[in-house]
Amino acid sequence: MKKRSTSPYIVVRDSKIHGHGVFAKKDIPKNTQIIEYVGERITKKEAERRADIQYEIGEKGTQGHVYLFEINKRYDIDGNVPWNTAKSINHSCDPNCEAEDDKGRIWILSKRDIKKGEELTYNYGYDFENYKEHPCRCGSPKCIRYIIKEKDRNKLKKLLEKKKK
Ligand SMILES: [Zn+2]
Predict the structure, then answer these.
(1) For residue 94, how far is its CA from the centre of ligand 1 (angstroms)?
(2) Which of these ranges, 49-53, 83-87, 89-93, 137-141, has the smallest mean pLDDT?
(3) Span from the CA of 74 to the centroid of ligand 1 (angstroms)
(4) Quick one: residue 136, left, alpha or beta (phi over 0 = left, psi -120 to 50 = alpha)?
(5) Mind listing the pLDDT tens digit for each residue in 5-26?
(6) How far is the centre of ligand 1, averaged over its atoms, from the C-alpha of 146 (Å)?
(7) What CA–CA distance (Å, rounded) separates 65 from 16?
(8) Partners of 10 in the β-ladder
(9) Cα gap 123→132, rounded to integer Å
(10) pTM of structure
(11) Are the C-beta atoms of residues 112 and 134 closer than 8 Å to each other?
């Protein structure tokens, strides 16, 4: 078994958002690579197969989680491994971090200065098509009740407003 990934910046504990969360152990300046999002390097084909399985689990009502990250045209990273501490980071509609690709490695990067004790979050960036399967309870004033890619936020907002009428 590989050793759990770690970082001097973080501590893992219970979260109000969901299950475990990752918190700032000390003040973190903007643009810091906080922790690497590690996992298994797999082909696209294998990633699709695993995503389908997750999808089926989701259909059965238990929450299906997707931990897949694209690193290039051929490979993805599946972060659903016990040694990936970054998988405990929760989603937020108003996140203080983002996932960044640095030469084929995924890093959790601070988007702004973060104070000691704050929970770290990033946007999971799920696709528009299946938004209904990813309800959000992040509690942020900017929450739109579903986990969705930043670029599709407005599209979904409009759709939800239309439905309300
Ligand atoms: Zn939210």
Answers:
(1) 7
(2) 49-53
(3) 31
(4) beta
(5) 999 999 999 998 878 899 999 9
(6) 6
(7) 18
(8) 24
(9) 16
(10) 0.88
(11) no
Question: Ligand 1 center to residue 147 CA distance, Å?
Answer: 6
Q: What is the maximal distance between C-alpha atoms in the chain? A: 53
Both structure tokens of 32: 């810091």
Of 41, 90, 103, nearest to 68 (Cα)? 41
Which amino acid appears at position 145 of this protein? R
Q: Which two tokens stand for residue 19?
A: 């299950």
Ligand 1 centroid to 155 CA: how many Å?
Answer: 15
For ligand 1, the distance from its centroid to the CA atom of residue 37, given in whole angstroms, is 21
Both tokens of 55, joined, read 């999808």
The tokens describing 110, both together, are 């601070």
Residues 28-55: tens digit of each pLDDT: 999 999 999 999 999 999 999 988 887 7
> By C-alpha distance, which of 140, 144, 141 is closest to 132?
144
